[in-house]
């Protein structure tokens, strides 16, 4: 009997039945624009095989002006139907159901042909849209209906109409972006005519036995957004207009409040869906930071929603639903909401993937078939690279012996998991611990390995994943007792004073700063405290659901310093860097750029910024100035004539890049 009966239960829509209560949320992969429909078919089919109730594709434009980018994917013509059948047939073959998301970018379109409800430029886009004419509005409504009809011909089971996140439909709904004086603007009833007409004409085009999901922005998180009463009025109108399922949208892309990053508590917005669900009769979907079966089951069991949407968790583990149904939650490769390989890639026009699952979106290219001749492979280092390699190699049938001198697996992940808002890293280590047991990897902890020992083992292959050493910069007084490395702080938990200077403002520097200033327990473990901290109103009484953000005292006074004169944190993740900067600002961290380090003495850290010399009178100076590869074992083996493979930080030390380390481990395992 499954521990997750609500998650596994089918959902009857009357004319069709969904196999589970999990909706795979829309994710743009980058394959849509590259003609990678065979690759998309393999990607979606695997998730259908894994038990997803309804898959929603990445956003497809209903017309040219609605494309996200000049080369964006569009479904407007009969000749485009054939390639979509590759996807739908693959999904149906695995017993799944799939809906095409129809997304008109509006003023978020990254090209000069963009249009919007009004001529108002988005703060995250250099292009100013043209205000749509009456003719363009009516034509766009017909385009939505036409695309839905084409999707039906292509074999899709339904469409999702994207009405949230600040895209075109959302832009018509809110006074923030709709300043029209005609019948499509002004009063709220006028502003919601556009989404209602889109649904009505779409339903008329596809008939009654076709799924229409509408993604409604229920919490805009921007000024001049919708109030709860307005959201409810539109939700009821959409139900009347023929929507089958109402999906929840949280926040515009330009909102300065995190909604899906790892620092957001799990299930932090389920209350929004619940608030609307009390007044609606069609199934509703809860969204955002639902990444474990327990969180999903609790939301469904408590009646907060009829379905749960997971996007990135199904990148991380395509068999999520099947594993939950079979009571194998411990073997789920959990999404850590880092955004590094998914959203950050897409926003840089790269193919999406997943940090913890490099096979995502590469199903046809990165595979792990059984080997014809098993080898004995010795792996040294049980950090992310070594763990990934060991699991994939053992999965193929190799005999793997994994060594590490530490008392637990994880390497640098054991430090990252301590950072407030990065508690999800515990899940990755839980997954690897269970996976290596399942696969029969021989684990040897608290075992220091040297070249003679490896020579005696006579392995067929040796993989060195020994990681990195912190780099020590040449600063006068670097050996002073005030100085410590980030390992002293995060690994050895050395006592730290109330005044701290951090040298190095890369990812590690930001992590250490957050570790030192954030109050414990972490905000990410308490939904109410987190909502208050970011100024989110659970009553949604004011437009957009905003209220003044709650200030709090920092645990310490911290200076975050970097040599480069560029903006501090400029090279952090595209979709999460601003959150880290904002968090440090909330904690009164002083971020200093263009710093020359003069010396460290009893007084503190002496620096020069421009022409000005100053003293930071601190108790500690924490060094976060990069890393160097720890590859001495590889060199010792080479001296003995033994060939070994370098992966992870031992190969390239680059800001503890787990994304590269795990992929490198996977690719080597696929090749041996």
UniProtKB/TrEMBL annotation:
Regions annotated as coiled coil: none
Stored InterPro entries: Aldolase_TIM, FAD/NAD-bd_sf, FAD/NAD-binding_dom, NADH:flavin_oxidoreductase, OxRdtase_FMN_N
Alphabetical UniProt keywords: Flavoprotein, FMN, Iron, Iron-sulfur, Metal-binding, Oxidoreductase
UniProt cross-references to Gene3D superfamilies, sorted A to Z: Aldolase class I, FAD/NAD(P)-binding domain, NAD(P)-binding Rossmann-like Domain
Keyword Oxidoreductase found: yes
Segments forming domain FAD/NAD(P)-binding: 376-634
Residues annotated as domain NADH:flavin oxidoreductase/NADH oxidase N-terminal: 8-327
Pfam families attached to this UniProt entry: Oxidored_FMN, Pyr_redox_2
Top-level taxon of the source organism: Bacteria
Cofactor section: FMN; [4Fe-4S] cluster
Keyword Nucleotide-binding belongs to the record: no
Family, per entry: In the N-terminal section; belongs to the NADH:flavin oxidoreductase/NADH oxidase family.
Protein name: NADPH-dependent 2,4-dienoyl-CoA reductase
């Amino acid at each position: 009997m499954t521990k997750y009966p609500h998650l596994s239960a089918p959902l009857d829509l009357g004319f069709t039945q969904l196999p589970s209560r999990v909706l795979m949320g829309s994710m743009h992969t980058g394959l849509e624009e590259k003609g990678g429909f065979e690759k998309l078919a393999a990607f979606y089919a695997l998730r259908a095989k894994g038990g997803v109730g309804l898959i929603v594709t990445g956003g497809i434009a209903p017309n040219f002006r609605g494309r996200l980018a000049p080369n964006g994917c569009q479904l407007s013509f009969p000749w485009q139907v054939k390639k979509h059948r590759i996807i739908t047939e693959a999904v149906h073959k695995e017993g799944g159901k799939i809906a095409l998301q129809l997304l008109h970018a509006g003023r978020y379109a990254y090209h000069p042909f963009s249009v919007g409800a009004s001529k108002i430029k988005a703060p995250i886009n250099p292009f100013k849209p043209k205000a749509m004419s009456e003719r363009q509005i009516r034509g766009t409504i017909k385009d939505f209906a036409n695309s839905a009809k084409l999707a039906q011909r292509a074999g899709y089971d339904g469409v999702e109409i994207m009405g949230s996140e600040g895209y075109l439909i959302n832009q018509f709904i809110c006074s923030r972006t709709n300043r029209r004086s005609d019948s499509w603007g002004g009063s709220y009833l006028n502003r919601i005519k556009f989404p209602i007409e889109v649904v009505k004409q779409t339903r008329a085009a596809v008939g009654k036995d076709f799924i229409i999901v509408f993604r409604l922005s229920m919490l805009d998180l921007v000024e001049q957004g919708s109030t709860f009463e307005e959201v409810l009025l539109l939700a009821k109108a959409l139900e009347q207009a023929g929507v089958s399922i109402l999906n929840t949208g949280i926040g515009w892309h330009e909102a300065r409040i995190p909604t899906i990053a790892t620092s957001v508590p799990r299930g932090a917005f389920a209350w929004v869906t619940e608030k609307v669900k009390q007044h609606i009769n069609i199934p509703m979907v809860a969204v955002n930071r639902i990444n474990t079966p327990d969180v999903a089951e609790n939301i469904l069991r408590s009646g907060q929603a009829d379905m749960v949407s997971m996007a990135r968790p199904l990148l991380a583990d395509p068999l999520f639903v099947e594993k939950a149904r079979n009571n194998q939650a411990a073997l789920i490769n959990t999404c850590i909401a880092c955004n590094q390989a998914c959203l950050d890639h897409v926003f840089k026009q790269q193919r999406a993937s997943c940090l913890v699952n490099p096979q995502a979106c590469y199903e046809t290219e990165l595979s792990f078939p059984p080997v014809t001749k098993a080898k004995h492979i010795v792996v040294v280092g049980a950090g992310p690279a070594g763990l990934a390699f060991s699991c994939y190699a053992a999965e193929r049938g190799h005999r793997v012996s994994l060594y590490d001198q530490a008392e637990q697996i994880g390497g640098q992940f054991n430090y990252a998991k301590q950072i407030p808002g990065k508690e999800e890293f515990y899940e990755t280590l839980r997954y690897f611990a269970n996976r290596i047991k399942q696969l029969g990897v021989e684990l040897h902890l608290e075992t220091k390995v040297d070249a003679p020992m490896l020579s005696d083992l006579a392995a067929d292959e040796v993989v060195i994943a020994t990681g990195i050493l912190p780099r020590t910069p040449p600063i006068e007084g670097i050996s002073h007792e005030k100085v410590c490395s980030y390992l002293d702080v995060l690994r050895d938990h050395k006592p730290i004073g109330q005044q701290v200077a951090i040298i190095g403002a890369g990812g590690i520097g930001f992590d250490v700063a957050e570790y030192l200033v954030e109050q414990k327990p972490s905000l990410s473990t308490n939904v109410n405290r987190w909502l208050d901290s970011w100024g989110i109103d659970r009553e949604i009484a004011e437009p957009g659901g905003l209220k003044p953000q709650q200030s709090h005292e920092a645990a310490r006074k911290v200076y975050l310093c970097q040599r480069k004169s560029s903006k501090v944190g400029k090279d952090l993740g595209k979709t999460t860097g601003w959150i880290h900067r904002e968090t440090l600002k909330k904690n009164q961290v002083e971020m200093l750029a263009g710093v020359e380090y003069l010396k460290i003495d009893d007084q503190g850290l002496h620096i020069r910024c421009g022409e000005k010399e100053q003293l930071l009178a601190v108790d500690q100076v924490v060094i976060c100035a990069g890393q160097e590869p720890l590859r001495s074992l590889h060199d010792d083996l080479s001296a003995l004539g033994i060939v070994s493979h370098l992966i992870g930080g031992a190969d390239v030390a680059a800001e503890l890049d787990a994304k590269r380390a795990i992929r490198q481990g996977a690719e080597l395992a696929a090749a041996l």
